[in-house]
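If your schedule permits, I should be very grateful for your opinion on a structural question. I have a record of one protein: its chain in single-letter code and its fold written as discrete structure tokens. Kindly check, if you would, that the fold set down in the tokens agrees with what the sequence suggests. I remain grateful for any guidance, and I place the record below:

***
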Amino acid sequence: MTYVVNENCIRCKYMDCVEVCPVDCFYEGENMLVIHPDECIDCGVCEPECPSEAILPDTEEGSERWVEMNREYADKWPNVTQVGEVPEDAEKYKGEAGKFEKYFSSEPGEGS
């Protein structure tokens, strides 16, 4: 099992999860984070830290899409190990459905 980030992270990107990850397996895009599924050690400490409920185990129904998406972008985006700036309008997008189709950006973030 591994954990992955889903579309709930898009435009929220709270980053609370990054600081608790013991293996630094988070990668930063312009408007979301992903977890590298091959680096994640399945400890689960990140899941309860996410205020957007964007982190889920790969055993959850519908997670297959997110495993592949996380893997693809973890290979393209920079690693992030420190909490960065939370978008000012994050609360506005928290809980919104269909964010991937509306807002996803394949552009990399800054990393740390």
Notes: The radius of gyration is 12 Å.
